[in-house]
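ASSEMBLY PREDICTION REQUEST
Request ID: AP-0331
Submitted by: J.K., bench scientist
Number of chains: four
Total residues: 468
Priority: normal
Notes: Please return the full assembly, not individual chains.
Input sequences:
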Amino acid sequence: MLGRIGKGAIREVSPRRDIIHEGVDPGAVRLILEGWACRYKSLPDGRRQTLAFFIPGDLCDAHVYLLRKMDHSIGAITHLRYAEIGREQMDALAARYPRISQAISWNELVTASIQREWILSMGQRNAHEHLAHLMVELFHRLRAVGLTRGDTCPFPLTQNDLADATGMTCVHVNRVMQELRSDGLIELDHRELRIPDLRRLEKAALFNPGYLHLDHEGAELETSCLLPGKQLTH
Amino acid sequence: MLGRIGKGAIREVSPRRDIIHEGVDPGAVRLILEGWACRYKSLPDGRRQTLAFFIPGDLCDAHVYLLRKMDHSIGAITHLRYAEIGREQMDALAARYPRISQAISWNELVTASIQREWILSMGQRNAHEHLAHLMVELFHRLRAVGLTRGDTCPFPLTQNDLADATGMTCVHVNRVMQELRSDGLIELDHRELRIPDLRRLEKAALFNPGYLHLDHEGAELETSCLLPGKQLTH
DNA sequence: CGGGTAATTGACCCGGGTCAACAGCAGTGG
DNA sequence: CCACTGCTGTTGACCCGGGTCAATTACCCG
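STATUS: Completed
Returned structure:
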């Protein structure tokens, strides 16, 4: 039923297009249905930092509409399909289906937790650990919404995207990725990532799954339940 | 009246003590009444990263009680006085005073926004810009809760604290701070920070105040309204 | 075939890390 | 009063992870 409510405001954008820009009034919440996007900020001189990646099932800032101005931008990485849910609609949904409101709060908490782990990565992990960590994180998140097949998952990020996200140069990303490959930790081909031995990559990344809170009692509450094909039992 | 409700659970800890540790069940929300604290994470080999600083009026993760386990720790920096507000109490408050619930949501959003700005700092700002930015941010936040006097504010952080927060070495923090001082951008003495020319420091920090959302229509909704001496008009 | 994006490589450089010693205090216990 | 300890700040010498610059090589895709 959620699907139907949202259907009035389904939008699509092409790769590398912004869907909302810093400084404007957010107005609505966005739910990613298909494709990847990213949240980013930039400095006046052009330096740019990716703050988060969004995959299907992710909500772009459920509560931002409380704020007057976006403090960051959101851009499509691949071709993107998303639902735009207006403020009133959102409030109505929350009031009507308490589980949705719960799911959203939970989603926000996990998002914040991921942001914190990114700060840890940027401050303390070296380039190898950082990139490895990023890939492990994305693999787990993709798996949670059923977008992996065995030990492989889609991976549309360019080395430039990885550079923006880690604060490194794409030249250095390239060199480190080559080492990860030659160490047999990852295989990357045609935008498909294969992780032959997840445990080994996790160890190399100093990965501790706790921050993703995948074990939560309300795991089935994930906003992925808003994705098409799922039913809310209310 | 808030004050009274909280009064049953006012606690104190000495400097450098943890008030809650990664892995445990949070159970309650904490409201800082006096002193500074920090949120931090560490890697198994001891590398440590500060994720946020808390000053009076700050709420430590209003919604964390939805999660089973803390994914980070919170430690006192100075002597600290805080209120512990249990889950039921929190829910009761939120139900009774809608403005409080609003204030909390707003606080969470700002906290997340600050985390994002930190990622930007870590990834794109150099050491000078990063440290300058951190000081400007803290100054603004302290001013918003009335803890500045003119161009000065308390500043209990050691160079080690700054190193943990910025991902630099305390040796390098030292050198950069000396340059900021010799450039006349800051004066720091006896844990008191003076910023002779805020605009100039902000420029050096590439500071853009938007992310703090200080101009929000509900600025008076800040959780600082939970601090003693303030009345809720409901 | 041409143009554009993404990946790769090499040579060189620099911001910031590492290691180690030392100075200034405040507290503390004798 | 003083020796001792521990924390914070400071300094110097040296090193390295990762950045910079620039050229080259795949790939698409129309």
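REVIEWER COMMENTS: Residues 230-234 of chain A have pLDDT under 50 and may be disordered.
SIGN-OFF: pending second reviewer
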